[in-house]
């Protein structure tokens, strides 16, 4: 490979990207308002979200868009599923959470369900394929921020209950890796304490006596 070709493949430093990553904050759905991304903006954001490590090129992910009137209709379907799944719960508490399910997608103007669909008939471990779907969720958060929108990645009952996940759009063998709420940030939470990198980092060394 020539030096010119190699140089063309090298990625130059991106201080603006690093600064944006340093500022990234999740914006709760209640703080997300219209406008949501346009169809073109969302398409570009999803294309960026898919630029993730994908061992074996299995493409073990897909998207379900929840927007417009579909948000309320989906909520009306989730509420009775929650009641049916929790028959022993105190009635008042059950109704409270069923109501939360009914309004789940109404706070933000749009949501994207990232579906993990690992190929179990290949040599790539399912775990690796599921990690790739998680990377799609994270990339979508970054793409949303870089496009001028707020976003938050959540899971919760609607993502993990099999009947609720199926209503959202999962098929056999699939799971919801995350529901990413999208919109324009009306307010952004203040910065929160971040982990101490040094406390969470170690260097590998051979076991003593080896």
- Helix/sheet category: alpha+beta
| CATH architecture verdict | 3-Layer(aba) Sandwich
User: According to CATH, what is the class?
Assistant: Alpha Beta
> Helical percent range?
40-55%
> What would the principal axes of the Cα set say about the shape?
globular
Tally of contiguous helical segments:
8
Mean pLDDT across the residues is 95
The CATH homologous superfamily corresponds to: NADH Oxidase
Strand segment count: 5
Low-confidence stretches: none
Largest sheet: 5 strands, antiparallel
Structure report:
This protein is of the alpha+beta class and 210 residues long. It has one domain (38-186): NADH Oxidase (3-Layer(aba) Sandwich), CATH 3.40.109.10. Helix content is 41%, strand content 15%. The chain contains eight helices and five strands. It has helices at 3-9, 15-23, 39-49, 70-85, 91-102, 126-146, 157-160, 162-168, and strands spanning 32-33, 61-67, 110-116, 150-154, 175-185. Strands 1, 2, 3, 4 and 5 form a five-stranded antiparallel sheet that branches. Helix 3 (39-49) packs across helix 6 (126-146), helix 4 (70-85) packs antiparallel against helix 5 (91-102) and helix 4 runs antiparallel to helix 8. The longest helix has 21 residues, at 126-146.
């Amino acid at each position: 490979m020539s030096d010119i070709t190699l140089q063309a493949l090298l990625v130059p430093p991106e201080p603006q990207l690093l600064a944006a990553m340093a500022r990234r904050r999740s914006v709760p759905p209640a703080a997300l308002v219209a406008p949501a991304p346009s169809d073109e903006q969302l398409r570009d954001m999803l294309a960026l979200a898919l630029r993730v490590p994908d061992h074996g090129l299995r493409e073990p992910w897909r998207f379900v868009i929840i927007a417009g009137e579909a948000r309320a209709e989906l909520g009306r379907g989730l509420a009775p599923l929650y009641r049916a799944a929790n028959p022993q719960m105190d009635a008042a508490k059950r109704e409270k959470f069923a109501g939360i399910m009914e309004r789940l997608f109404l706070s933000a103007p749009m949501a994207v369900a990232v579906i993990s669909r690992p190929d179990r008939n290949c040599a790539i471990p399912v775990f690796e394929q599921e990690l790739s779907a998680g990377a799609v969720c994270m990339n979508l958060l970054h793409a949303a921020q870089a496009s001028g929108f707020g976003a938050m990645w959540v899971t919760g009952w609607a993502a993990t209950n099999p009947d609720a996940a199926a209503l959202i759009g999962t098929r056999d063998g699939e799971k919801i890796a995350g529901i990413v709420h999208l919109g324009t940030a009306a307010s952004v939470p203040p910065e929160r304490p971040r982990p101490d990198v040094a406390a969470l980092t170690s260097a590998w060394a051979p076991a003593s006596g080896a």
